[in-house]
Amino acid sequence: MSADIRIDPILCRGHAICALFYSDGVDLDQWGFGKVVLAVAESPRDVRRAHRAAAACPNGALVVRERQVGPTGT
Ligand code: SF4
């Protein structure tokens, strides 16, 4: 299980909740806006944490998209 993570800079308002929920993958820039530092969550634990951070973002700016696994597991 893995997922791509991105922050929409138009929607982000710098609440910093994402960095609290998923500190390994998201940091804050110098102005306090969310900044992705790990664009791919590789472990199930990180994917869960990224989803939690996305759910907590009040602006829907953090987007987590799970990668589809094919029938061969690739
Ligand atoms: S919680 Fe959402 S709006 Fe706030 S800094 Fe993170 S991505 Fe931006």
Describe the overall structure.
The protein is α+β, with helices and mostly antiparallel strands. It has one domain (3-66): Alpha-Beta Plaits (2-Layer Sandwich). 24% of the residues lie in helices and 24% in strands. It is built from two helices and five strands, in the order E-H-E-E-E-H-E. The mean pLDDT is 94. It binds iron/sulfur cluster (SF4). Iron/sulfur cluster (SF4) is lined by residues 7, 12-18, 33-34, 57, 59, 61-62.
Main pleated sheet: 3 strands, antiparallel
What are the segments in which pLDDT stays under 50 over at least 5 consecutive residues? none
Distance between the termini: 11 Å
Order of helices and strands: EHEEEHE
Number of helices: 2
Structural class determined from secondary elements: alpha+beta
CATH class: Alpha Beta
Q: Strands across the major sheet, in which order?
A: 4-1-5
What small molecules does this complex bind?
Answer: iron/sulfur cluster
Strand content: 15-25%
From the coordinates shown, what is the CATH architecture?
2-Layer Sandwich
